[in-house]
Amino acid sequence: MATLSDQLLHRIREAHRRRTLSWWERIYLPAIAQGLWVTSVHFWRNLFLHLAHRVGLFRRIPAAVTVQYPDEQRPTAPRLRTRHRLMQREDGTPRCVGCMLCETVCPAKCIYIVPGEHPDPSVEKYARSFDLDLGKCVYCGYCVEVCPEDAIRMDTQRHDIAAFSRDGMWLDIIELLHPGSRKHTDPPKKFIQLELEDFRRLKQSG
Amino acid sequence: MADFEPLRKDAEVILAKYPRKQAAMLPVLCLVQERFGFISDEAEQWTANLLGVSVAHVHEVVTFYTLFHRKPVGKFHVQACSNVSCWLRGSEQCVKQLSERLGISPGQTTADGQFTLSTVECLCACEQAPMCQVNDAYVGPITPELIEQLVTHPEQVAAISTPFRGAPGLVEPVLSKRFSLKDSHLIQTYVRDDGYQMARKAVTELSPAQIIEEVTKSNLRGLGGAGFLTGKKWSFIPRPATAQRAGASGADPSSTDVAGRGIIPPKPHYLVVNADEGEPGTIKDRYILERDPHRLLEGMIIAAHATGCRQAYVYIRGEYAQPTNILQQAVADAYQYGFLGKRIFNSDADFDVTIHRGAGAYICGEETALLESLEGKKGFPRLKPPFPAISGLFGCPTVINNVETLACVPTILQKGGDWFAKLGYGKSGGTRLFSVSGHVNQPGLYEASQGVTLRELIFDYAGGIPEGRHLKAVVPGGLSAKILRADEIDVRMDFDSLLAAGTMAGSAGIIAMDETVCMVRALLYAAKFFAHESCGQCSPCREGTGWIYKIIQRIAGGQGRPHDLDILLAAATNMEGRTICVFADAAAWPVQSYVTKFRDEFSAHLSRPGADPPRCSSCRAESSTPALAHAGSHG
Amino acid sequence: MAEPVKTVTLTVDGKSVTVPPGTTVLQACEQADSPVPFYCYHPGLSIAGNCRICLVEIEKAPKLQIACYTQAAEGMVVRTASDNVLQGRQDVLEFLLVNHPLDCPVCDQAGECWLQDYYMAYGLYNQKFDEQKVKKSAKAVSIGPTVMLDMERCILCSRCVRFCDEITKTGELGIFNRGDHSELGIHPGKPLDNPYAGNVVDVCPVGALTDKDFRFKCRVWYLGSTSSVCPGCSKGCNIEIHDNRERGQRPHIAQGRRIMRLKPRYNPDVNQWWMCDEGRYGYKFIDENRLTQVQLRDGSGYRAGSWDEALGLLTQTLRRLKDAQQLDRAGVVLSTHLTNEDLYVAKRVFGGFGIRSLAVQPARQGSQDDFLRRADKSPNTRGAQAMGLSFDVKAVLERAARKELSLLWVFGGDLVELAGEAQAKTIADSVDLLVFQGSNVNRTCQLAHMILPSAVYAEKDGTFTNEAGRVQRIRQAVQPLGEAKPEWRVLLDVADRTGFLWEFRDAQGVFGSLASHEAAFKGLSYDVLGDQGAMLPQKGSDPSGKGSDPNR
Q1: Domain A85-205 top-level CATH class
Q2: How far apart are CA B387 and CA B626, in angstroms?
Q3: Which of B124, C393, C435, C536 has its CA at a distance of 20 to 30 angstroms from the CA of residue B374?
Q4: Is B361 within 8 Å of C64 when comparing Cβ atoms?
């Protein structure tokens, strides 16, 4: 073989050539039996262990790898992109300054922000309304990456989003600031605009 | 609502002195402030209407210059110098004491309205350090007794009387001949001493070309600091085609030529005297103005004749109230004697002199900034070319010279250019007035040849370092000049020798620092000065000087970081050569020279991993870093 | 023997370029396609030379020189991208950014900020500044009815100060204090309220001076730009219309409005770089209070109709009048807000019918000055004059009031304002069919029997003729709202229905026809007009031969 690529091609071809099966292998029944054996072992073992667990024995020996969701939940990595939330300042107003970077960068164009004038000149701008259509969101996390104020995060660890309608997937600014505050039966307050005082009152009333 | 109309008459007199109304800006504002104690919104509006400019531009001027106040100040405004020479002689302690005795911090006024305390930059009375200015009077050196008297009987403190040290190395003093004479400032004294004879000769017998030739031969250099050959500068002035009879207001615009076509008359030439002495460590022009003003006037007459000027403006720094009064009297006397005014010395020539006071801005010592200030604007240096010789004051050909430079001119005519050149050294002719201050036994003004060495000046003339201490560093030519170590003082003080030694002759302001001086702290005071005086016109200097000051403040305050020195040097070097004028370069040189020549000392002030950054005893003793007093923020 | 015109030839980055004497190095570099960055330089203002970012290398000069001030000299060798220059540029940029606040997320200039642009092009350095930034006296304050100031963002280039000194000569702005505490401001009690104040926002390269009207409305990277001409007065300042191109998927921005702002466009012969505030902020009518539906009188109210219905009715009426030889019972009132194309098609169609009671409403008069503002607050009076249209609208209205008209078709304007409330009502009662074809709701709408929605200038291609006789193109920035249509298209439709056939179907075609039929416009075409317009040819452009003075 002259060049490196020639060698590589040769190895690839070798790997793809089908290996000839032995006589034993060509008969399927032994393989089937082997599989059934494995399954049975697991079945009886798990049955025993789960029953034992029920009466408090052999707790430390784990049985089936199945995670019994939602009673058991797999721990998620902190970096997992889950449902969004908006971060608050100390007084309950959003950290968001309405820079529109997340709205711009979102590939699904699912963020809608209306900015307003903040009386404190060192803050200057804030988000009067902030809506996120979770139905369109692709969970890319660009909005979190691009935010210069750490105002939006995808760290609520809520990934079990379900709704009865498209509107149910709509997150208004109140729900984003206070995750879980909206009941399933309430419609979202689409495009609601709040004053700074409203935010502070919301925080106080919990 | 204040009534400004009573000022109108005086204002009209001022307006008549300038061909453009806006040029009366500084004197009119001075008039308003003298009358009302400060300049209000209404005062600015009245001034704007009077001068035909927008009120925003009046406000620009009021906030630019340090001496204008927007709020009333106390009956006695105590302005304590906080620059290097005064710091070396204990100004920090003085300010602290004053502060304690008066019960206010710098920038504040006492509750009874009697005293306002401010810190200011160099008053150029460094030989009497530590110095302060109380209203118009220079008062010092500040001692505990003086502070006591100031606080209890402020109206009784006397202005300083400054002894002249002498000219030990000279057989015959040139500039300082009359400095120690009684009533040396009076015209009678001057005339008795053969004064104005050279002016008479120049105006009645010599041609401009002859004068310029003599001055060129003399190797007279610009003694304000730049060192430009004076003869060459005068030769740049365009020769007028015919002798003008124009007065201060310019030629008659209705003149026509033979064919009856309207012609544009040639522009008048102006002589401007730069008496805006401000380089820290320099006191020389003040001596000339106070002790030998007629010498200056004679020099001016000769210079004017050589360059076709019929009108001169003397721009004198606003803090120099007493020198201004003396000069004003001298001018009035000279008019009386027929040395100034119409047909001087019974010749065809007219020559008028107008004194124009500055209002507190070091940058107005830069020649084009001075012209802008004279024209009634902020002291923003101009873009060059055109140079003042072609387009200067009011767009006309202008000669600008320093006070000391002009004071040399009569002797050059009397003794000849060659004599003057030989008296000097190399390509720097004649003698200079050397200001020596800081840690020396006899601080003061000394006249010596250009060829004198720094060692001679400090040790032979000024008596060496007090209390048997050792010299550590010397600033050789005003605060802008790169510093020299104690082992570098065997250098002659002429322009070329100092340039070769990596520094500059500048304004010949020598500041000596002994071994107790912390170089970080010294640079702190220097940086504070440049940050305060930057005019702010162009970005590198405006931002750079402030940045540099902040870094050094941190280092002196014990929060220096490992990379600070490199950043400091970078900030300074990146300003150089990129600005409209050389102020930025002048601000960069101290940073570059102090940090480079005393690197170890600076490094020792920086933090090391795991250890608190140390501060030397000097920095620790003065626990607060000096506040940067901002223009227009007094009172 | 004439002296030859001297030129100067120099070399920029190895490229030879020849320029007239007096050209600066900056201008020469631009011509040589080696653009040099700048802040304080503005071609319409004096040279300040204070920003220092235009530093370039000139052979034989020991230091870098500023290109904006240095005159190009014969044989000069200039380098705009040597290591020295790039380092100098980067250092100056660093100095400018040292005290600049980290405001990009909240600053309206983001996306069109010269600090951002030049940093991305020439900066990209590791910053060394690690101190407390300078604080100024005020941040985010209003300094006049139209302008916000943020002193900390200001880089003190002084463009705005020079604008107020040299262009408007009102001098409201100044730079106060000294050193790095210098700050831009106004004198208390003297706000920035001259009629051209909005231009300081244009000249400000950063977000120090921002437009109050545009504040926080829309991010500039959502905007698209279309060249047009301001319809505010007869000066015809060239403008750019900035509309929100994202409005389809982002309807929440500015409540769904389309036009976000107007900016002046450079035209050396009309408005240079400037426009007045009246014109700049007079775009709200494009998206507000619009007529968008064809409406027909139904009892005391109106019902929605269709163009087909309306035009059918109109055509029928006209045909009936023509057959009964009663065309003198038809009247048309045009407007100087219409484009040349609208006016021309109206003239041809109504002229083709033989309708003689046709006049143009004179424009509303307002204030004028010796700079840009003109008293005639409409864009196309000269166009109507050049086409020889009558301005005797009084005669037409009087005939209508005397029941001498069955059909009165009013294009634009407001009959109530024109004739007074009483006479307008009389006219509405006297005329069988009062048609109002306009773009915005006004009092005439309540009187009209038929309302036809019009496209505004931003929604159509066309031309205006300014008072100096310059014909300038307007271009369509957005689609007409709702059912609105340009007048010329509606009239062509009417003509179609009555048997006239036209070969052209777009505005350019209409103009082509106009140029060949109207002597005043001879030789012009959209290509000739280009982006800066062209003057009406001298012969035949004298309007006083035909038509009457609209201001009488």
Answers
A1: alpha beta
A2: 38
A3: B124
A4: no
